[in-house]
Design brief:
Oligomer: single chain
Distance between the termini: 32 Å
Number of helices: 13
Bound molecules: glycyl-adenosine-5'-phosphate
Strand content: 25-35%
Largest sheet: 7 strands, mixed
Strand order of the largest sheet: 3-9-10-21-18-17-11
Radius of gyration: 27 Å
Helix content: 25-40%
Number of strands: 28
């Protein structure tokens, strides 16, 4: 049975993964705080991504850029003019909706009449400096990738990379979403992990396909179930020509022509040849985009977008800044504006998907157990050390020593606050990989069964093995590394 969102939200709160931001004041829609286990899981997700796309490859380098930057960036990128959602208000109950969330022309809450649809700018505005006027307006970035484009030449010059190469960044992004919701699925403050992978224009299609496969495999290698993932292509615009031909891509009317951005380049078509343009669902910068979707409790929804952005961004920034943003190809002696393939993933959304996917309920002979079967690289806590008696100094001392030794290598915890059955259930519910139990037999030389060994219990199989106390770290290292 797939888990419902309420169960996950409640587990997250009860166990310290995610809390509502400023809950004591009633929270604030679209803002969340990550508790002690949430921080670990989130950091593991980011590390797993960084390891796969930067550390293990020699063609991608990293960047950590500012959240607020020169507002001209957002004019050039198209965000000031284009970024936002169409929204309507209900004239009766005053609620606000995104038009693409509506099915009819009445308010879904009260059946009231709706206003005309209008564009809502979703970038958060702020002011830089002491004066709050138009000249000091700046924006919180709505995506992390633009500073990759504005740093393109800096990084090219300092890293000396050759095409194809990529730049990766993890960082906060902000969008004043009209309808945040579904827990941490759609937030107003969130994190993104983005790669801009620059290629020769003629290689864009090939790399787009490769990235799609690479990204799908990343989730599967981290234990996500294949049946919960699927690929959907964004519907392109369709340009119907007088000749009867239908062209696909990202179409824009400019004066008396139609510019059609396609994965292979931009075509210009005389307006009189065009009978109609059927708008699709592509973002303004992309002629082709795949969504990697996850089967969330509210239905299949975007987890990661993998877009071909062509040379749109570098060209825009070059035109607006007056700087040359090209790559000099030493083989052909030519300056080229590379195309870019962009795999773009939300950390919070990815966190949610891994959490949902890991959730299992199992019926044991006497009770039900809830277990988060995280991949070992993602589990927030790798080892829990559990002393069986907290009033026996020898047991406590041995358990504390093992816990301290484990902490040097992995996230580990020490818990003596309940009976062992309860402690196991608690660790299962947060996905701890191994529990090490120290008992009388382990630490009391006068005990008739003394063996100096402790128990290591496996989260998924619940199998227990006994190993010498001084070998615990070695045995765990084999399993964890
Ligand atoms: N640079 C391209 C870009 O930002 P996007 O499809 O708008 O494209 C990419 O966002 C990813 O960022 C999404 O697939 C999703 O994982 C995440 N994301 C976008 N908006 C979000 C939001 N409001 N809350 C949480 N994650 C979001």
């Amino acid at each position: 049975m797939p888990v419902d969102m309420d169960t996950i939200v409640s587990l997250c709160k009860r166990r310290g993964f995610v809390f509502q931001s400023a809950e004591i004041y009633g929270g604030l829609g679209g803002f969340w705080d990550y508790g002690p286990l949430g921080v670990e899981l989130k950091s593991n997700v980011k590390q797993a991504w960084w390891k796969a796309v930067v550390q293990e490859r020699d063609d991608i380098v990293g960047l950590d850029s500012s959240i607020i930057t020169n507002p001209r960036v957002w004019v050039a990128s198209g965000h000031v003019a284009q970024f936002g959602d169409m929204m309507v208000d209900c004239k009766e109950c005053k609620k606000r909706f995104r038009t693409d969330d509506l099915t009819g022309d009445q308010c879904p809450e009260c059946g009231g009449e709706l206003t005309e649809a209008r564009k809502f700018q979703t970038m958060f505005k702020t002011f830089v400096g002491p004066v709050e006027d138009e000249a000091s307006v700046a924006y919180l970035r709505p995506e992390t990738c633009q500073s990759i484009f504005t740093n393109f030449v800096n990084i090219l010059n300092t890293s000396r990379k050759k095409l194809p190469f990529g730049i990766a960044q993890i960082g906060k992004a902000f969008r004043n979403e009209i309808t945040p919701g579904n827990f941490i699925f759609r937030d107003r403050e969130f994190e993104q992990m983005e790669i801009e992978y620059f290629v020769h224009p003629h290689q864009a299609k090939e790399f787009h396909q490769r990235w799609l496969e690479d990204r799908l495999n990343w989730f599967i290698n981290l234990g996500m179930r294949r049946e919960n993932l699927r690929v959907q292509e964004h519907e392109p615009d369709k340009v119907h020509l007088r000749s009867g031909e239908v062209l696909r891509g990202n179409a824009k009317r400019v004066n008396d022509v139609v510019e059609l951005m396609t994965p292979d380049g931009t075509q210009t078509i005389a307006a009189e040849e065009v009978v109609a343009i059927e708008k699709g669902e592509l973002a303004h910068y992309s002629p082709q985009c795949f969504d990697l979707q996850y089967n969330f409790p509210m239905g299949w929804s975007e987890l990661e977008g993998i877009a071909n952005r062509t040379d749109f961004d570098l060209t825009q920034h070059s035109q607006h800044s007056g700087e040359k943003l090209t790559y000099f190809d030493p083989q052909t002696n030519e300056h080229v504006v590379p195309y870019v393939i962009e795999p773009s993933l939300g950390v919070d959304r990815c966190f949610l998907a891994f959490l949902l996917d890991a959730y299992h309920e199992e019926q044991l002979p006497k009770e039900k157990r809830t277990v988060l079967k995280f991949h070992k690289d993602l589990a927030p806590i790798k080892v829990a050390v559990l002393p069986l008696a907290r009033n026996r100094p020898e047991i406590v001392e041995m358990a504390k020593k093992i816990s301290a030794d484990c902490r040097k290598r992995w996230s580990a915890t020490y818990d003596d606050t309940a009976a062992i059955g309860r402690l196991y259930r608690r660790q299962d519910e947060i996905g701890t990989l191994y529990c090490v139990t120290v008992d009388h037999q382990s630490a009391l030389p006068h005990d008739e069964k003394y063996d100096g060994k402790v128990t290591i219990r496996d989260r998924d199989t619940m199998e227990q093995i006994r190993v010498s106390a001084d070998q615990v770290v070695n045995v765990l290292r084999e399993k964890l590394e």
